[in-house]
Amino acid sequence: MKKILVATDFSTCAANAMEYAMDLAKILKLEVCAIHAIGAMEGVFNNTYNALYIEDYHNNKKQALANWANTFAEKEQYNGIPVSTVSDIGSVSAVITKYIDANPVELLVMGNMGSTGITGLFGSNVSTMVEKTKTPTLIVPLESKFRTEPIITLATDFSSNLSTEDVTALKELMIAFKSEKLNVLNIIEGGEWKPNQEGEDKFKALIGDVGLEFKYISESNPIDGIMNFIVSSETDILCVVKHHHGLIYRIFNRSTVNQVMNRSIKAILVLHE
Fold first, then answer.
1. Tens-place pLDDT, residues 134-175
2. What pLDDT band is residue 131 in, cutting at 50, 70 and 90?
3. Which class in CATH covers the domain with range 152-272?
4. CATH for 3-141, among 3.10.180.10, 1.20.1530.10, 3.40.50.620, 3.40.718.10?
5. 185 by DSSP, 3-state: which?
6. Nearest residue to 155 via CA among 22, 40, 270, 35
C-alpha cells in the first residue's frame, strides 16, 4: 500500500504535520508511516560505548515513536487509517532517503516552525530533503491547518516539466479535495509583460481537465509576489516545482528555502521535474 511518510522529532511542529498527514491519508486512502532518525552518537556518554545500553536506548526510542504515533491512530476521526512506524540510525536525510528508496512512498510530510521565526531540528533538514529527494514533499508550517476544500496555487515560470509521478500526485490531490480550480501563478520581474500563451497551453496539456486559472503578478522580488498572492487569494497549499534554472530554482535553492518557509504560514508542496 502506498504511504504518506511523516518525519518526526516529537516536537509540536512534527505533531501538527502528523495531524495534517492523517487528514490527507483519510481522503487519499493511504497508509501513514511515522519515521524517526536516531543520531549515531545518541545514548553514548563519557566516550564509553556500552553495547547493551545502546541497544536498550534504541529500543526505548522505537517504543517512544510507536507510542507517539498511537496517540494519533487512536483518535476517533482517524479510525481505520493504517499507521506504522520506523526508526533508524543516522542523519534525518539519510534515514528518510534510505526508507524512500525501499518503499512505495507517495508523499513526504515534514513539519516546520514557519513564521514564528524559531529554528529547530527540521529547519535545515527540510531544506536538505527538498534538495535530495524527488518524492513530492509537503512542508507544513506550525500555523498551517488542514482544510477539506483548500485553495491550491501552483507557482511556476512555465519552463519546468513535471515528472509523470508528480503530475499524477497533483491530480490525485485535486480530485481528493474535489477542487474545481488550480491557480497557476507566474511572477513577472520587470515592467511590461503579457500572458504567456505558450506556457498556458503547455500546462493545459500537462495537467488535463483540472480547472486552471492563470494569474500574473509584476513584482521585483518574486518571494514577495508569491507571499502577497498567498494572502490575497487565501491560498492553503502552495505548490512549487524544483528544478535547476529559472524563477523557482532561485526561490527554492538551499540558500533561500528557509526564508520562504519561515515567511509562509501555509503548506508548501514541492514537486519535481
1. 888 899 988 888 988 899 998 887 776 777 777 777 887 888
2. confident
3. alpha beta
4. 3.40.50.620
5. strand
6. 270
